[in-house]
Amino acid sequence: MNSNDNPPEQNAYLEELNALFIPLDGMENLDRMVKAIGDADIVLLGEASHGTSDFYRVRAGLSKKLITSKGFNIIGVEGDWPSAYRVNRYVKGMEGADSSAADALGDFTRWPTWMWANTDIRDFAEWLKEYNEANHGSGSTRPKVGFYGIDMYSLWESMEAIIGYLEETHSPQLKQARRTYACFDPYSRDHQSYGIAAGLLSESCEKEVVELLQQMQSRRMAYPGSEEELNAEVNMLVTSSSEAYYRTMVRGGPQSWNIRDKHMVESLKRIMSYYGASAKAIVWEHNTHIGDARATDMMADGMVNVGQLLREDPEHRVFAIGFGTYQGEVLAGRAWGSPVEKMTVPPGQPGSWEYYMHQAGGGRNGMIMLNDASSMLHTTIGHRAIGVVYEPAHERFGNYVPSSMADRYNAFVHLDRTAALQPLPILQPFATDALFSE
């Protein structure tokens, strides 16, 4: 590009990116990212869409390096706890586990199924199982690497898991759990119906959920310190958070978003508490969750997110890495619950972060350590975000988030031309919360 094509301030922005751009050839240069992560105990790995294979592939490559070289032992994903816990059983070789990763992904039936039931996650889960078997055999005192869903859409599934656990342990809390579950029965597993009844008609199950939560928190643990106890604990947290989420979402505003992101942080902390002093977590979520909300227009709207909440916690050392692309293909739907399509991602809008990263890299993949940036990269620029509902022709009107990139992330991975995920065949997909945010 001729230097006369850009105004001086744009030339300065591009000059800064040129100086910081590190080509990403295969996975070799990811070692520089591992070094930059340093002694962080939580690494947040983002994505600009939920349907791009390259984001999953590079996040898997970086996660493997963090596991093997720095002892990371927790993978937390933007997925439902019960569905991901089936994968956790598989990668840890727990009793009753599936015989393959593809089978273990079979509970990801909630639309959008492709987010986790895809070939990239299948392959990563197989690697995790092999790693655990090779490095955490009998006699090992180190915890195996786990795979956990820290999201909270699984209201009914988590309630069923709680009842199953209480039945197995002959718990006196079983009666209250059944009463709580019965309260939700009239809504036929329809989150929107419950949200309307609870949020607009004041016909909620909040009282029953709170009573069950209090009883379970006060009871003596049946399996203290066990993973089954963690499973029951987080399923109870999911039930409480999702009831509050669906009760508030129909009213609009930031409260339901904040309930969700606060839940994801709390779920992660409980998992890390279970792992103890050795806990080191890697989180896979959309950029809108892992990039600090204070560096975007979310803050003005009263919204917080995972990245902000974890950075504000003095007990943890957090390193956040955003991911993006200039152009390519993505899996998404035209509307909530509609058939998945492979869509074309158009080139980044002129003047956007994606546009400048493409220019700086000359069309190559690369990364930038934003901790090394000058004040230039603390200015606001449009940064693309693609959701599970997407319309490429209209993206310029709502898919670019005003962001101070050096405040939003510690580093950024740019994958210039990307390909769509390859979904696995999952039976009985069904739609849920049409107000899902990204």
TrEMBL record:
CDD domains assigned: Ere-like
Source species: Paenibacillus ottowii
Name of the protein in question: Erythromycin esterase family protein
Gene3D superfamilies referenced in this protein's UniProt entry, alphabetically: Biosynthetic Protein domain, EreA-like (biosynthetic domain), EreA-like, domain 2
Entry superkingdom: Bacteria
